[in-house]
Design goal:
418 residues, alpha/beta, Globin-like, Elongation Factor Tu (Ef-tu), domain 3, Rossmann fold, 3 domains, 6-stranded antiparallel beta sheet, 13 helices, 13 strands, 18% strand, globular, oxidoreductase
Length: 418
């Protein structure tokens, strides 16, 4: 049922206050919801809650919905990205009334008298329309995955067939179905969710990890960075457990592949270049794309640029170089922020320091008529995006993904996952 002009006008009137107090509202929302429904802590990423990233992402989503309430089609790309994440986590229709109730209560608590009955009623109606849109998209995704060849619903047990240390901080896990059945297909760039019940912890923990090899293998591969505690974030609970405790032969539970940050399909004879730029473990979805390009579009020029601190933490380097040795159109460049003496003596990198505009001008195609994909830490992506815009690259040619809650690099359609 469409919203009335009066409801739309009321929602629009709340946009300024949401811009200022949106995160305050979403913090209150999560506190209220988890206090009454602690079982939902089995779905949400606790680390993102502690860092405030999830609250900020939800505030941005609520603000975008309010600003575009008269034309919700404009936020459809964001709906699709969130819906993929929800499907991978196991969010179901019955969760939406819980979210709606606590969101309205949070708006009322934070805004006080400014949250009039008219405002709360309008937001209740608007939330119902938005929730129905999400439920419809997610139901279609659930059905598509469950009915597809090799697909499944929920979380399926997989055996860790192999565990390989790729660097000092990244390990790859080769995963095969415990039931010996088929694997669901995926698109290069997609991720799976890993659900872990960790001894000593009350709640289940779910994390998304990109599939780091091309589709069509008899296994899934994820390459996981062990996240150490830092000033800005706690140590990674799941990544630490995978590194320290999970061994070959152990069982992990996976959702079927999901995600909207994917390599665009193209004909094998396509000749316009593809540029892949990664920082740290952000290389994982791009490695999948790299393998796929070499296999399916072998004549297409590909430029792969990877930034790492040094060779000790640079994972999958030899795999990329071996691929480049067999595919002449593939050019690889490595940038090390703080190379070791061994890195220098062995000539393991092409540039010291950071990725800079002048260097990109030297190694990228003169024409900006290329497709650009990048992923890595947020500050890294901000710099890459700025450089690409300075080079004159159009937004339509730029694709990127946040590892974690959604964000934006001056445009609202970036993919994300947590």
């Amino acid at each position: 049922m469409p919203l009335s002009p009066q409801t739309i006008a009321t929602i629009k009137s709340t946009v300024p206050v949401l811009k200022v107090r949106g995160t305050e509202i979403t913090k209150c929302f999560y506190n209220r919801m988890f206090a009454r429904h602690p079982e939902l802590l089995n779905i949400f990423n606790h680390s993102h809650q502690k860092q405030g990233r999830q609250q900020g992402a939800l505030a941005n989503a609520v603000y975008a919905a309010a600003a575009n309430i008269d034309n919700l089609e404009t936020i459809l790309p964001a709906v699709m990205q969130i819906a993929h994440k929800h499907r991978s986590l196991g969010v179901k229709p019955e969760h939406y009334p819980i979210v709606g109730r606590h969101l309205l209560e949070a708006i009322q608590e934070v805004l006080g008298d400014a949250a009039s009955d008219e405002v709360l009623q309008a937001w209740g109606e608007a939330y119902g329309v938005i929730a129905d849109a999400f439920i419809g998209v997610e139901n279609a995704l659930y059905e598509e995955v469950a009915s597809g060849q090799g697909g499944w619903e929920g979380f399926r047990p997989f055996i860790v067939e192999r565990k390989v240390m790729e660097s000092d901080v990244i390990a790859s896990f080769y995963l095969v179905p415990q039931d010996g059945g088929e694997l669901a297909a995926f698109r290069p760039g997609q991720y799976i969710s890993v659900k872990m019940d960790i001894p000593g912890l009350e709640h289940t923990h779910i994390r998304q990890y990109s599939l780091s090899t091309a589709p069509g293998k008899p296994y899934y591969r994820i390459s996981v960075k062990r996240e150490e505690e830092s000033e800005h974030r706690p140590a990674g609970i799941v990544s630490g457990y995978l590194h320290e405790k999970v061994r070959e032969g152990d069982i992990v539970h996976l959702s079927a592949p999901a995600g909207e940050f994917v390599l665009e399909p193209a004909a094998a004879e396509r000749k316009d270049p593809v540029v892949l730029i990664s920082g740290g473990v952000g290389q994982t979805p791009l490695i999948s794309m790299l393998h796929t390009l070499a296999a399916e579009q072998p004549q297409r020029p590909v430029i792969y640029i990877h930034a790492a601190q040094n060779g000790e933490v640079h994972a999958l380097r030899d795999e990329v170089l071996e691929l480049a040795s067999r595919h002449e159109p593939l050019s690889c460049y490595f940038c090390y922020e703080r190379p070791t003496d061994q890195d220098r003596s062995a000539g393991l990198y092409n540039k010291e320091g950071y990725i800079e505009l002048a260097w990109l001008k030297d190694i990228l195609p003169a024409s900006t008529a290329s497709s650009y994909y990048f992923c890595g830490p947020v500050p890294f992506m901000e710099v890459v995006y700025e450089h690409l815009k300075e080079l004159g690259v159009e937004d339509a040619a730029i694709h990127y993904e946040f590892f974690g809650p959604s964000g934006t690099l001056s445009r609202p359609t970036a993919a994300s996952r947590g």
